[in-house]
Amino acid sequence: MTKQTALYAEHELLGASFTDFGGWQMPLKYRSELEEHHTVRRAAGLFDLSHMGEVWVTGPQAAEFLNYALVGNLAAIAVGKAKYSLICTEDGGVIDDLIVYRRADDRYLVVPNASNADTVAAALQERAANFDVTVEDVSETTALIAVQGPAAEAILLEIAATESRQLITDLKYYAAVEVELAGLQVLLARTGYTGEDGFELFISNPQATQLWKAVAAAGAQHQLAPCGLAARDSLRLEAGMPLYGNELGLDTNPFEAGLGGVVSLKKTENFVGRSVLEPLKEATLERKLVGLQGAGRRSARAGYDVVVDGSVVGTVTSGLPSPTLGYPVAMAYVRVELAEPGTEVQVDLRGKPEPFTVVATPFYRRQK
């Protein structure tokens, strides 16, 4: 049985089309996904991300534990900051990519993806056995709302308490702070998955509807609109951000996914997967994740073959026509010798080869 977020009734009132994602009934779109995509690029979009996981890790060994459980150096994060990281298997496969917020010296918030929230929480519980820490999964009681787009800050300032306004304007990227919005206490993070400036708002389920309505009302004069998962996917692909299950999985390692920099080999902890991942830093990879730009109008899709001279040399992981750029973009794993930007390849679009060029990602980069 699929789960519903605390905001499900709001989505119904707004006429959302729903889809099952990670075991949750989530808004796919409210209007045209193309319109929603452009709204985020030009103004701001309002997203329900309450299907994401939230796991608190607390205790005197919290930093040491996370340095063992995850591949990054979480002990090096300053209080108030955040870090993108990965949790891997012993053999180096990616269980999930996630964001970790340090809220105090001995208190961290780990945010895994919706489809992996239970798996990550269970893995952290298991790995915590020899550490003086508490792992608490609060995913079922926590709502997460995102405001993404160039007008995001202005919208939040409309509903911020006077003493919170400076905290919002001073908040840096990949950082979080406690603020008061619409009379509610909110953990506000300046992070996102769209390539735009934006914020993610953590709040308890019973207060989610009040916060959603307050943001929507404040955003009306800024052309804010609710947006669903379809627009979120096209936005993240333009921004070159990986999606678990497409670019990342148990059969991929961080280095071939272009995430070798996330793996900290300088930290002293013998983190899970280190014995396999450390040699990969200097090893010659067989394949690499690249960006592809189409020369025509037809788009590559996940699972399509990348070919050169009729031979399969890789597989598309994500692809669509870019609403912002006006041409097809995709990400794909290709043989490492073909990963250099400028390399010409083809994608087999149901029996018809279409020309694509390997390009650097992100495809889209916002103007600061």
From TrEMBL:
The EC category is transferase
Record's catalysed reaction(s): N(6)-[(R)-S(8)-aminomethyldihydrolipoyl]-L-lysyl-[protein] + (6S)-5,6,7,8-tetrahydrofolate = N(6)-[(R)-dihydrolipoyl]-L-lysyl-[protein] + (6R)-5,10-methylene-5,6,7,8-tetrahydrofolate + NH4(+)
EC numbers for this chain: 2.1.2.10
One of the record's GO molecular function terms: aminomethyltransferase activity
Residue limits of the GCVT N-terminal domain? 7-267
Alphabetic keyword roster: Aminotransferase, Transferase
Q: Domain Aminomethyltransferase C-terminal, which positions?
A: 287-364
Quaternary arrangement and interactors, per the entry? Answer: The glycine cleavage system is composed of four proteins: P, T, L and H.
Name the protein family.
Answer: Belongs to the GcvT family.
- Give the protein's function: The glycine cleavage system catalyzes the degradation of glycine.
| Protein's name according to its UniProt entry | Aminomethyltransferase
